[in-house]
Design a protein that fits this description.
19 helices; 46% helix; 4% strand; mainly alpha
Length: 281
Amino acid sequence: MNCTLCSQTLSECNQATFECGHHFHLSCVLQQPYSSLCSTCDNSAPNLPDLGLDRTVAISASIASRIQQRQLKPHTASTLMQRLTQAITPLTPQATLFSDHLHHNKRLTCIAKLGFEARDAVQERVKWSDIASRYNTVDMLEFGFDWDHMVSMGITPTELQKFNWSQQSRVLKLSATKMMQMNMTFSELAQLHYTPHQLLELGFNWQTLSNMGGNVATWVQFGFTLEDIKRYWSPTLTQLVSAGFYDKSRVQDAGWPMDEVLQTLPSMDDRRSGRVLRLNF
């Protein structure tokens, strides 16, 4: 049996049955202008539907219908007279935009039921800080905010800290390339307190970190030992020299334990390009 509203096969759960006996998809019925009337029978006759018990489908269909209505009737800019009236009235103006509901401190679940989506916040140029300061990470993700939305709205590395590792890696699907869209510095990355495993999973290899400013003075901000750096990133002798790990004064200024450095760094006895590299200690 097919639903005459969409011509698709009817299923057991997503179904509305009218008193006349006609069957439709529940989601289709709820998106009709007059959902209490059977579209097949004479609309003048009282004919109420049994909407069933699938509350999830009903809510989703209702939200989809409101989104569709908002898209068909986009919000128009207020006139000068309307703005003046809103400015002088002692009453709170009616909320018509996503930002209006946001400033009224409505829950994101309520805003979603009114037909608003994450892209509405982006289109209205809402700042991510206004979202992050009001809602928890679970609510933000369930509302539909993804990484592209967050970047467009100006998320900062500090605000990214609100999300746990599972949310960052599995839901937002972050990578080094995506995170660099924040114009993040090496120091800001260090403040996110990732483990070596997490940094490598995100794609922060030695070259990427070097391009961000990773050197003997900045690597210390991660709190890793030199042995950790050597084990996980396997830098070459040339890369270590370029980063300043063989410059005694820079090593001391950065606060690295000298004994650890001497025990961990590879020997500088190798001949390269016809010259002998010598330790500057």
